Amino acid sequence: MGREREAPKQQQVSYTVEQLVALNPYNPDILPDLENFVNEQVSSQTYSLDANLCLLRLYQFEPERMSTQIVARILVKALMAMPAPDFSLCLFLIPERVQMEEQFKTLIVLSHYLETARFCQFWGEAAKNHNILEVVPGFEQAIQAYAIHVLSLTYQKVPRPVLAEAINIEGLSLDKFLEHQVANCGWVLEKGQGRGQLIVLPRNEFNHPELKKSTADSIPLEHITRILPILG
Amino acid sequence: MATSYDFDDGVGYEDMGGGYRQQPQDLGYDPNFVPDAVKTFVVHLYRHIREKNVYEIHQMYEGSFQKLSDRMFKESPWPSVDAVAPYVDNDHVFCLLYQEMWFRHLYARLAPTPKQRIDSWDNYCSLFQVVLHGVVNMQLPNQWLWDMVDEFVYQFQSYCQYRAKMKNKTEQEIALLRQYDQAWNVYGVLNYLQALVEKSMIIQILEQEKEGLEQFTATDGYDYSGGSNVLKVLGYFSMIGLLRVHCLLGDYHTGLKCLLPIDISQSGVYTSVIGSHITTIYHYGFANLMLRRYVDAIREFNKILLYIYKTKQYHQKSPQYEQILKKNEQMYALLAICLSLCPQVKLVEENVNNQLREKYGEKMLRMQRYDEEAFALYDELFSYACPKFITPSAPIYEEPLVNYNQDAYRLQLKLFLYEVKQQQLLSGIRTFLKLYSTISIGKLATYMEVDEPTLRTILMTYKHKTHAVDSEGKIFSNADVDFYINDDMIYVVESKSAKRYGDYFLRQIVKLEETINEMDRAKLE
């Protein structure tokens, strides 16, 4: 019975918070709701940039109410939203003296590695700071998705070691991962020239520029209509 | 009307020390004395407002008020509202409007005292409350309504700057700050703007207009069926006010969201007033620059800079002329930054490009180098051209009083330069890529003097930084030179701008038709 009561309540909470942010974004009273909502995003693996920016804004207006623990969670969530620039968007709102705290310095370094595609350093640093990251489920998968995103922008065919380093999976686990991607995401495995394996990533307009639709040649209808009187 | 954008009080961030200046008290100024010229002015303005004669109101507002200010109130405030009230039937709303202009004049030409700053806030509260309760039945010129929103945000920003300079405050000033802690409170400011947007239903009006159910843009926001335009147009301009406040706070994402109901790809009510047009595009462009959507920023900066270039001469006599020039210069600096990070020069029109080269050509060359000097230039241009960032929170009175008026600016600058640093190797890569159609990773690594794994990360960084995420979460490319990698081989694709013959022919057809028409007319004479 407890479960039955809880389910609709949960739904209502998230509905209300998002609505509060939309309708009443400049109301200090919604601060506790927004903090709870951050925790809810962490546990339910969901994400709302608008709600989190709204909370950071309220912290900016009333710094004495700021919870650094919540801020850290927002920042980890923002890292997971890469390639979107959410992490910077959050930093723009966090006072510099707060950013000097050790845990935030770490997160800024991690963001720097991701922004400059230095995945090897990233995974090394992440491993050393498990305490900050492990509280947020889905972190590893989210970063792997980002790494694959950057690889797909860049490569038609990526050498196996490059992929392995970017997503931090090796050996048998990588075989299993690849098997899954081949079955579900259209990846193809090829034998490279002599050494090692090549992974053919799905085609997109960024790694196959010829797929890009050329809009340059088309003329919008409303431009044509301008000369219709002349033609008629 | 001499409205102030961001930069009226102080040129840069360097000269903002010190507390407030005591207002130079003109001994000859008697707030209760109303010269005849002022009597005539308020009587006429009051009458035109009651008769809803927008044209005459506009003439008096833009012309007469300015002329009288120049002639009689160069160094002193206008007569007090209490003194002029008897000449306008003690009309409550008119007095609020008069008072608003009174403060605006004071801010522009003199220095407000702390108490005057607070009184001006109270006046805005009363004015907006009257408007929000829907009892205003006037038709006011867009220029005036824009100036109200613009000035409201300006005075808020000015107050935050003033309050953050705690070091030289007298005890009396601090007591005043603590007593009136609601004055220019950030929640209050944002909620007034938000309330004007909501109460005016402007978002719904703009939506319905798209379906032809409502007219707003076509009439420039004026109401020709006997109603009032005040709430609607104030609501409209408040969206731009919100964009600006959010930019001042460093919240670029939310700022752009507030602007979404206005379609800036077309002209609209926001382009009907030059100040509003410039403020909109300046903040839109700046926010996009900070969001790394360089192409969007370049496109809009280019458009407005071309517009200013072509129409500048018509504004020469306008009281806003200096502000137009100032923002013009700042936007060239921002364009120089955008193009240095994202060299999409083909998006820039020839006249604008010539101006840009003249102003920043040499600096832009040095910015490509990414040495210490280049960073200093990014710093210089950003500091010159950025909005006047504010810290919205009140000072902590219990702790030793320090100035914190530069904190917000320093943070935004630091994060921006951080971004520049992350992109520092990209211009080198771009230069090499332009020289080859294919090149192996090994060879390019040798040329770049890095090892292969490092080169691969630089190439991926290039891809990541040149592919931004738009407001709907879709990826789009900002790159002028692009590439893909196949195993160990890089294939370069230079996006050649396909000549738009279609457009060219369309224009020539229209031109030919015009010429033929002209010739037909000439025969008749």
Automatic annotation (TrEMBL), chain A:
Keyword set, alphabetical order: Cytoplasm, Initiation factor, Protein biosynthesis
Superkingdom per UniProt: Eukaryota
Keyword Protein biosynthesis appears in the UniProt entry: yes
GO-annotated biological processes: formation of cytoplasmic translation initiation complex; regulation of translational initiation
Residues annotated as transmembrane: none
PROSITE patterns found in the cross-reference section: PCI (PS50250)
InterPro entries documented for this protein: ARM-type_fold (IPR016024), CSN8_PSD8_EIF3K (IPR033464), eIF3k (IPR009374), PCI_dom (IPR000717), Transl_init_fac_sub12_N_euk (IPR016020), WH-like_DNA-bd_sf (IPR036388), WH_DNA-bd_sf (IPR036390)
Keyword Cytoplasm among record annotations: yes
Name listed for the protein in its UniProt record: Eukaryotic translation initiation factor 3 subunit K
UniProtKB/TrEMBL annotation, chain B:
Domain PCI: 300-499
Cleavable signal peptide: none
Entry keyword set: Cytoplasm, Initiation factor, Protein biosynthesis
Entry's family note: Belongs to the eIF-3 subunit L family.
Keyword Protein biosynthesis in record: yes
The protein's name: Eukaryotic translation initiation factor 3 subunit L
Annotated compartments: Cytoplasm
InterPro entries assigned to the protein according to its UniProt record, in alphabetical order: eIF3l, PCI_dom
UniProt GO molecular function: translation initiation factor activity
Main subcellular localisation: cytoplasm
Pfam families, alphabetized: Paf67
Subunit and interaction comment: Component of the eukaryotic translation initiation factor 3 (eIF-3) complex.
Any GO BP annotation: formation of cytoplasmic translation initiation complex
Function: Component of the eukaryotic translation initiation factor 3 (eIF-3) complex, which is involved in protein synthesis of a specialized repertoire of mRNAs and, together with other initiation factors, stimulates binding of mRNA and methionyl-tRNAi to the 40S ribosome. The eIF-3 complex specifically targets and initiates translation of a subset of mRNAs involved in cell proliferation.
Protein species of origin: Nelumbo nucifera
